[in-house]
Design a protein that fits this description.
single chain, 949 residues, alpha+beta, Jelly Rolls, Immunoglobulin-like, TIM Barrel, 5 domains, 9-stranded mixed β-barrel, 49 strands, 20% helix
Length: 949
């Protein structure tokens, strides 16, 4: 091969940067007379030197152009600038570019001098107002710019990828797109040659070499072509016989070198890497190189410490991706943001399958939207289409939630985007919209198959479930989907498991802390707020410290995601899963690692569940009473089909790991099927109240291959200390369960006068007729004031203020919540002084009231939560009450937002809580004052200021 005349000169390093908060630089011609400035490293985001700045900034870089460049073509190339760039060279306007994540270039050949001044004006659009017509949007504030999650996470600005000059002869290789066809034993090179000079003849030589022997081509082809002025396209097939196929287990790479030599003496070459592999959908599953493969992956939000939107170094990126490999994952969803090109280079080398996505987030429908979307899709595919790691393109995310789009408009837009995308890259699977039609099932998603415009249906589901984890959620994960359709659960998880804030904050350098870097401030604000709410909630006796609470929450959530992931893997319709998310990102601090990529316990739980072979022990229900029957199912997941003859054993073990009673089941199995049912039976063990594990052990040749378990709890049967209770019970569910416990329910009305029994109100939304609520609550208020006790199930807070409490208790915030339960008689025989786990899953509240308001009313929160503000700012936690008591006169009212009445028929926890609430209420009633109940319900008690409304 002749020596190429190509030269690449980096312009990375120190640039001058001047901020322009008044947007006056253009009018003042800063491109010609650059103002006072500071130094800024490129690549980088300007938040590294001015945290929180949104608006306009001006960059300047001087460079020399040697005389040897005379007669050459010199292109100025930017890797990416966030978000709008406008460029001048030596005072002459070059042009502009819109879009924050993709490359662009200018031909500067005619404008070069020996000494040159390059000026770049950058607009980082703000969130709440426009600059030159640009504004960044977000899910709660949508705009029409395709900016991924910049408006939600960190609104980063600046020249954040490489800048370089590429110097060539007038005829040069502009692009080489390699299309692998391993079954045909060839690769097709689609080549673009740009000729800035006169028309001429050229010899084009293509050589393919392996990464093992780069200097010894395995195949070559030569063409003689006539180059017209402008762009010239040719397609050259190259035989690659008996190719070594690229896969996660063997990420073998090839290089394709294209050289041109013209009759005028111009010489240029371009080398690209590629892999020989085929990835498609067949028979309801993904196939790689003709073999079925399950995707097991993590969603990557592309947010980082210090640099915000890119890894600080390539080593940081490599450690991040190696973490996936080391923990058994083979797939990464690069979510709503094109990653750095070198990131995909590393994925190619490590063998990680990647889903690439343009930065089309929550975008609004305007006349510019389609143009914006198309530019992002085309730019992404052109840039990354040679990477063998990229096996899927996904055009849109949750598109049916987009503002001002009808369902039909979304379908038409994604169809047009897919048509344009197919012309740029024909070799990959292409998904139109992740999340399907918004139903939660993933239905409505179309996938375009490789090397055709034919589409098929796929179920691309965002499968989040409530936490704590319910038995019903596990059943759904085991069974969801439709036979014959690939089920890709492309998002699930998002558990509230904060990082070790203290450790995260210590990792920042002192200068970064003093500068107030955005990511440092966010974590510090969250931590400070959490500590304050932890103190307000009085949780030191429960957890010891904030760190203790975080550690317990992480342990509980890690076990839940392990069980969810294992349940999905027993689903024969599953084609792939993708946990949300790899790392903490801004206000979404539910990563498997913290922002520095230090693993949380969640990662270990996930890693356990993606390994093969995987024994899965399932038990229903996980909370039972003494004497109840257990439904047990045992599965073996073995996607690699080891073919080993194994023995297995299932047993119930106690807290110390000792087996209790005889084994539930045992046997031998030859591990040769993908999913095998080993045991299904109903057992009725004799167990004392406590916590137990159903444990499965898989052995081969006497050695333990795997051991997995699932915890369950046995409760004593609930008992009442009273034989009667008053009840406002429109559906009769409370009365029915009181009868089962040997007590009667007396119908509560505006004339009810038995103050010495517990009073129970079912106030769920939509239950009962509340026309007489003023009269009924008037009588209830008097009973409590005289020493009675009432339990109100799921009331609306305004009802409490209007009819019962003298102070307002407002609705609390429920986003990502760490639920807790304090030790109290109401939780007798249930876990207490703990993070709420599976034992509370059936009754866990989905609405909370403000903890500080409960305290202001003189009350006490007995079960509540600390809720993170996931929309980033304010970066704070809210303290909320799920079950609390408030004094009223001589008595008290217990407000129970836990979902007890609606679950009494199917939940042992709900039944236990009902009995405990009745027993607690009976124990705090104060006799006396019964005679004062003879007055009308609407008449206040004497000397009761709180009734003067």
């Amino acid at each position: 091969m002749s020596k190429s005349a190509r030269e690449v000169v980096s312009l990375n390093g120190q640039w001058d940067l001047a901020f322009d908060p008044k947007n006056e630089g253009k009018e003042r011609r800063w491109h010609a007379r650059f103002p006072r400035s500071m130094k800024m490293t490129v690549p980088g985001v300007w938040e590294q030197v001015r945290p929180g700045y949104d608006g306009v900034g001006w960059y300047r870089r001087r460079f020399a152009a040697p005389g040897a460049w005379d007669g050459k073509v010199v292109r100025l190339k930017f890797g990416a600038v966030c978000y709008v760039a406008e460029c001048w060279l030596n005072g002459r306007h070059l042009g502009g570019h819109e879009g924050g994540f993709l490359p662009f270039e200018f031909d500067v050949s005619a404008l070069l001098r020996p000494d040159n001044e390059l000026v770049v004006r950058v607009i980082n659009p703000p969130i709440n107002h426009e600059i030159d017509g640009y504004r960044i949007g977000a899910p709660l504030n949508q705009g029409d710019l395709p900016a991924g999650k910049l408006g939600w996470y960190y609104n980063a600005g600046g020249i954040w990828q490489v800048v370089e000059l590429v110097v060539t002869d007038p005829a040069y290789v502009a692009d080489c797109y390699v299309k692998p066809f391993p079954r045909r034993g060839k690769a097709v090179l689609d080549i673009t040659i740009t000729n800035r000079g006169r028309a001429c003849s050229a010899v084009v030589t293509c050589r393919v070499a392996s990464s093992a022997r780069p200097g010894r081509p395995v195949a070559s082809a030569t063409r003689t072509v006539r180059l017209k002025k402008g762009n010239n396209h040719l397609s050259v097939p190259v035989a690659v016989k008996e190719a070594r196929l690229w896969s996660p287990d063997d990420p073998f790479l090839y290089s394709a070198a294209v050289e041109i030599a013209t009759d005028s003496g111009a010489v240029d070459s371009l080398t690209v890497r590629f892999g020989m592999r085929e990835f498609t959908v067949r028979n309801g599953a993904f196939h790689l190189n003709g073999r079925k493969i399950k995707l097991k992956g993590l969603l990557q939000q592309g947010m980082y410490p210090r640099t915000l939107i890119f890894p600080e170094t390539p080593d940081f990126a490599r450690r991040e991706l190696q973490l996936l490999k080391d923990n058994g994952f083979n797939f990464l969803r690069a979510h709503l943001k094109p990653v750095n090109p070198y990131y995909l280079d590393i994925a190619d080398e490590l063998g990680i399958l990647v889903q690439g996505e343009p930065a089309i987030g929550w975008i609004g429908n305007t006349p510019h939207t389609e143009r914006h979307c198309r530019s992002q899709v085309e730019g992404l595919l052109r840039r990354d289409r040679n990477h063998p790691s990229v096996v899927l393109w996904c055009l849109m995310n949750e598109a049916y939630h987009l503002r001002e789009f009808t369902r039909a408009q979304v379908k038409r837009l994604t169809a047009r985007l897919a048509g344009w995308a197919r012309k740029i890259d024909s070799t990959r699977l292409l998904v139109d919209t992740s999340g399907g039609d918004g139903s939660g099932t993933g239905a409505g998603t179309r996938i375009m198959l490789p090397n055709t415009t034919r589409t098929a249906e796929i179920l691309d589901a965002h499968g989040y479930c409530p936490l704590p984890l319910r038995d019903s959620s596990l059943r759904d994960y085991r069974t969801r989907g439709q036979a014959g359709l690939p089920l890709l659960v492309s998002e699930y998880g998002a558990p509230e498991a904060p990082p070790d804030y203290a450790a995260v904050l210590r990792t920042y350098r002192r200068a970064e802390r003093e500068a107030g870097l955005e990511d440092y401030r966010l974590h510090k604000d969250f931590h400070d707020s959490l500590k304050a709410q932890f103190r307000a909630a009085g949780l030191a006796k429960t957890f010891g410290s904030v760190g203790g609470m975080i550690a317990e929450a992480s342990r509980v959530r890690a076990d839940e995601v392990r069980l969810v992931t294992a349940a999905m893997r027993t689903n024969p319709k599953l084609a792939g899963l993708c946990f949300c998310q790899l790392a903490d990102a801004s206000g979404e601090l539910f990563g498997a690692t913290d922002v520095w990529r230090r693993p949380k316990p969640i990662l270990a739980g996930l890693a356990t569940a993606v390994k093969t072979p995987l024994p899965v022990a399932e038990i229903t229900p996980r909370v039972l009473c003494q004497g109840d029957a257990l439904s047990v199912r045992v599965m073996l997941v073995n996607e690699d089909r080891l073919g080993k003859s194994c023995t297995w054993r299932v047993e119930i073990v106690g807290a110390r790991g000792r087996r209790i009673g005889r084994a539930v089941g045992s046997g031998r199995v030859r591990a040769e099927k993908e999913i095998q049912l080993l045991l299904r039976k109903t057992v009725r063990p004799t167990l004392k109240p406590g916590r137990y594990n159903l444990r499965m052990t898989l052995l081969h040749a006497g050695r333990t291959l795997r051991r997995e378990s699932v915890e369950f709890s046995v409760l004593p049967r609930p008992r009442l200390v009273v034989d009667a209770a008053g009840a406002d019970d429109p559906q009769g569910v409370i009365a029915r369960h009181l009868r089962r416990l040997g007590a009667r329910a007396e119908a509560f009305s505006n004339g009810y006068r038995n103050k010495n029994v517990p009073i129970l109100f079912d106030l769920r939304e939509g239950v009962g007729n509340r026309q007489l609520i003023r009269e009924v609550f008037g009588q209830l208020r008097k009973i409590v004031q005289l020493g009675g006790c009432a339990v109100l199930f799921e009331p609306e807070v305004m009802l409490l203020y209007e009819h019962l409490f003298p102070t307002l208790i407002r609705m609390g915030r429920a986003m990502r919540t760490i639920g807790y339960v304090k030790r109290h008689a109401i939780f007798a025989n249930l876990p207490a002084d703990c993070v709420a786990g599976y034992q509370y899953a059936d009754v866990y509240p989905d609405k909370f009231d403000r903890g500080e308001d409960v305290m202001a009313a003189g009350g006490e929160v007995l079960a509540g939560g600390l809720s993170m503000h996931m929309w980033t700012r304010p970066a704070d936690y809210a303290w909320c009450g799920g079950l609390y008591r408030v004094p009223l006169g001589r008595g008290q009212i217990v407000v129970c937002n836990m979902k007890v009445p609606g679950n009494l028929d199917n939940s042992r926890t709900a039944q236990t809580l009902l009995a405990n609430l009745v027993n607690y209420a009976a124990g705090v009633i104060k006799p006396g004052g019964e005679g004062q109940l003879l007055s009308r319900c609407i008449d206040p008690l004497p000397d009761s200021p709180s009734d003067q409304r």
